[in-house]
UniProtKB/TrEMBL annotation:
Molecular function GO labels: DNA-binding transcription factor activity; sequence-specific DNA binding
Organism name: Yinghuangia soli
Protein name per Swiss-Prot or TrEMBL: DJ-1/PfpI family protein
Domain HTH araC/xylS-type intervals: 216-307
Cross-referenced Pfam families: DJ-1_PfpI, HTH_18
Protein's UniProt keywords contain Magnesium: no
Length: 307
């Protein structure tokens, strides 16, 4: 996703647009800049909140598979009252997906993806007020109720309003890894979560659902450099607090973990990935910073023990 193109329709919710746009903008501060573009059928687009938004009226000629199209939602009492959209713009959505691109929506924007035929046979969601109507209007879609977002074959849909931020963080994590998504979330002062009704897939995100800046700074260091020894005194100095204070704050923010246990979770998670892709246990252990495979085997056994 080198470029993110937002397709705007009249009556859009400002936060449906601004939330994801801010997340992709913030990614640039961490070494992953995105070009943000705004396209609409008319140059001035009214918003539900009364602030007009200006956009271009033509799509980029060189949209590629690495680019993302996002359709923010709009304010209507019923999806049947949604603004009309020209057939050629629906064609752009279909063609972009057919070329391998990703298409996403926030809130009522899912209806536009449905009109383009992109929801047929795929899991999707929308704001809870219009989920049932979305299912009626697009009977071939698999509408998932009451989740923050869904992702199915490069069609990504989110619930309503602020969930567009969760959608953007998910896409950033999928593209650049959960550490980048966590950094963006921290900068935006939001929780780094994936889906409120599904378990976190990554230790980085699973233990980032807090707003403690001291702990985030330490986690940033651990996330980026978990393969080397990072003793508690070094971590405390990095955060500018005492070892005792860091231990207390870290445990409170992460549900009882010490920095060492968090680092071990990151190592095991990375080792599991390497093993799943053909590495031996010994090679994976060395790659993530263990002197030999004994500690890795012990920690893997501990994580798989249901007790």
């Amino acid at each position: 996703m080198n470029r993110v193109v937002f397709f705007l329709v009249p009556g859009i919710h400002i936060l449906d647009l601004a939330g994801p746009a801010q997340a992709f903008f913030e990614a640039g501060f961490f070494g992953h800049p995105y070009e943000l573009r705004y396209v609409a059928e008319r140059a001035e687009v009214p918003t539900a909140q009364g602030v007009p938004v200006h956009a271009g009226t033509s799509w980029p000629d060189d949209l590629g598979a690495d680019d993302l199209i996002v359709v923010p939602g709009w304010h209507v009492r019923s999806l049947a009252e949604s603004p009309p959209v020209a057939a050629e713009n629906l064609d752009v959505l279909r063609a972009h997906h057919a070329r391998g691109g990703t298409v996403a929506s926030v809130c009522a924007g899912a209806d536009l993806l449905g009109r383009a035929g992109l929801l047929d046979g795929r899991r999707c969601t929308s704001h809870h007020d219009v989920q049932e109507e979305l299912a009626r209007r697009h009977p071939k879609a698999v509408v998932v109720r009451d989740v923050l977002f869904t992702s199915d074959d490069r069609v990504v849909t989110s619930a309503g309003i602020a969930s567009g931020i969760d959608l953007a963080l998910h896409l950033l994590a999928a593209r650049h890894g959960p550490a980048l998504a966590a950094q963006v979330a921290r900068d935006m002062v939001v929780y780094a979560r994936r889906n409120g009704h599904e378990p976190q897939a990554s230790a980085m995100l699973r233990h980032r659902a807090h707003l403690d800046d001291v702990v985030h700074r330490v986690q940033d260091l651990l996330d980026a450099d978990f393969a080397r020894p990072l003793p508690l005194p070094e971590l405390a100095a990095h955060a500018g607090v005492s070892e005792r204070t860091l231990t207390r704050l870290f445990a409170r923010a992460t549900g009882g973990l010490t920095p060492l246990r968090y680092q071990q979770a990151l190592r095991v998670e990375r080792a599991e990935h390497l093993i799943a892709h053909g590495a031996t246990v010994d090679a994976a252990a060395r790659s993530v910073g263990f002197e030999d495979a004994r500690m890795l085997r012990k920690l893997r056994a501990r994580s798989s023990d249901p007790s």
